[in-house]
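To the wet lab folks,

You asked to see what we're planning to order before we commit. Fair enough. Below is the target structure as tokens, and below that is the sequence we designed to fit it. If anything looks off to you, flag it before the synthesis order goes out.
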């Protein structure tokens, strides 16, 4: 596939209906998209795109499942990610089950359940990381996956109004003692410069440029 920078941007579909992710990814890949000449669109414009059963056993498998399904349904190159929170003392859980850790209770129920499970865990044992697998799949069958990881620890209570998911309880590592913020207390610009999703899609960006300009 080649791109003509004098023509309309080529479209790449992000395999999600989540507006938060669409806005975030457009910000993360703004420079790459400008250089390559592509526009990232969501699945809302493709009502016939099927819901994907995320039955992979890793973030990478689930990201590829979603990207390949979106590419097949739309005929466009497709990006997808699968991400979640991995807590060391829970053996890496919630992991791939992060979005449905409480069943179908949503973000608040997920946070409450996780914090209850860690209620008696000392601060030094609350290590965790956000993990993201970012996948690119083309209609011709080519695909690639990259991983990103943001280490930190789980706070004892949610803090901050920004972000979504587990952002209010993940305290990124490397912050000054006594002034550590959760990811939900970061600005969008700050978050998008360090997040697991940023790291994964930044690693994927060279592949996006290479595959779409062939």
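Sequence we intend to order:
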């Amino acid at each position: 596939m080649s791109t003509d920078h004098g023509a309309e941007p080529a479209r790449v579909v992000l395999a999600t209906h989540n507006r938060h992710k669409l806005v975030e990814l457009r910000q993360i890949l703004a420079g790459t998209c400008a250089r390559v000449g592509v526009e990232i669109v969501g699945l809302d414009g493709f009502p016939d795109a099927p819901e994907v059963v995320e039955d992979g056993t890793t973030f990478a498998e689930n990201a590829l499942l979603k990207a390949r399904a979106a590419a097949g349904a739309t005929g466009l190159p497709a990006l997808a990610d699968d991400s979640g929170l991995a807590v060391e003392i829970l053996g890496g859980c919630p992991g791939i089950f992060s979005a449905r850790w409480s069943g179908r209770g949503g973000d608040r129920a997920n946070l409450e359940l996780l914090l209850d499970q860690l209620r008696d865990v000392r601060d030094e044992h609350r290590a965790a990381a956000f993990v993201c697998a970012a996948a690119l799949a083309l209609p011709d069958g080519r695909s690639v996956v990259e991983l990103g990881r943001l280490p930190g620890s789980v706070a004892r209570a949610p803090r901050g109004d920004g972000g979504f998911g587990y952002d209010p309880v993940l305290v990124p590592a490397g912050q000054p003692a006594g002034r550590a913020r959760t990811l939900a207390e970061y600005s969008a610009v700050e978050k998008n410069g360090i997040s697991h999703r940023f790291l994964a899609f930044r690693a994927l960006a060279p592949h996006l440029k290479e595959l779409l300009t062939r």
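Structural context that might help your review: The longest strand covers residues 143-154. The chain has one domain: 10-212.

Thanks,
Computational group
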